[in-house]
Write a structure and sequence with these properties.
about 260 residues, alpha/beta, 7-stranded parallel β-sheet, 8 helices
Length: about 260
């Protein structure tokens, strides 16, 4: 399949590791110039170097910053003022009981997981409309479809972003600018492994915890980040212009709903 991505430009937020990196690699593999982002300079530089080596035909830029800050957003847009593709991504807020959270906790969650994406969309969507091509992909969480009680901060902020984009996506699609969400379930990433350290049963090794949790998924395994990147590349492609306002759950079948 010709994705039509050769020569396109993409900003991929939080892409030095995990699912963001998988998206950057998948887009680079399709000939897309990519901007790699993360908070740690060494990690960003290492990831950018590896992608350059794997895909020497594309341009790889690196921006070490916190994308949830105005300064970080400005740095990304300076590196790529007119992206064809924007992949919004940011780490989730901590779990807990909503009774323990104050207003500052909520504002931080909203800034990171809702408003950052909206600000980047605001900065880029009109240019996409003018050029008659744009793909905005928000990496959120399967919890948008099936909320997890201890992740209330994430549930609220990500659902807010999803609702905002549901409306905007119907306005932009006539200009070949689509907006969709990718909702990951359990993927084999460093973040998942950190989570698994808290799910071990008495006397259980980390490896056994991983196996037990994986078998609890209908697919009997965790997702491979490569699969997630491939889904991102398809939604970014020229072939996905009739898909907008949708939220694709990638969770091995964990979400039990019909729709």
């Amino acid at each position: 399949m010709d994705t039509g991505l050769t020569g396109r430009k993409a900003i991929i937020c939080a892409s030095s590791r995990g699912l963001g990196r998988a998206c950057a690699e998948a887009l680079a593999a399709e000939g897309c110039d990519v901007v790699i982002n993360g908070r740690t300079q060494e990690t960003v530089a290492s990831t950018a170097g590896e992608i350059r080596s794997a895909f020497p035909e594309v341009m790889v830029s690196e921006v070490a910053c916190d994308v949830a800050t105005p300064e970080g957003q400005a740095a990304l847009l300076s590196a790529c003022p007119n992206p064809d593709i924007l992949v919004n991504n940011a780490g989730g807020p901590p779990p807990g009981d909503f009774r323990d959270w104050d207003r500052d906790d909520w504002i931080k969650a909203l800034d990171t997981n809702m408003l950052t994406a909206i600000m980047l969309i605001k900065a880029t969507v009109d240019g996409m409309i003018e050029r008659r091509f744009g793909r905005i992909i928000n990496i959120t969480s399967a919890a948008v479809k099936a909320p997890i009680p201890i992740l209330g901060l994430s549930n609220g902020a990500r659902a807010g972003l999803t609702g905002f984009c549901a409306g905007l996506s119907r306005e932009t699609v006539a200009h070949n600018v689509t907006i969709n969400g990718l909702l990951p379930g359990p993927f084999n990433t460093d973040r998942l492994k950190q989570t698994m350290t808290k799910r071990g049963q008495p006397g259980e090794s980390f490896e056994d915890t991983m196996k037990r949790e994986a078998l609890g998924n209908p697919a009997k395994r965790f997702g491979d980040p490569v699969e997630f990147g491939a889904a991102c590349a398809f939604l970014a492609s020229a072939n996905a212009g009739f898909i907008t306002g949708q939220n694709l759950v990638l969770d091995g079948g964990s979400f039990r709903g019909t729709l």
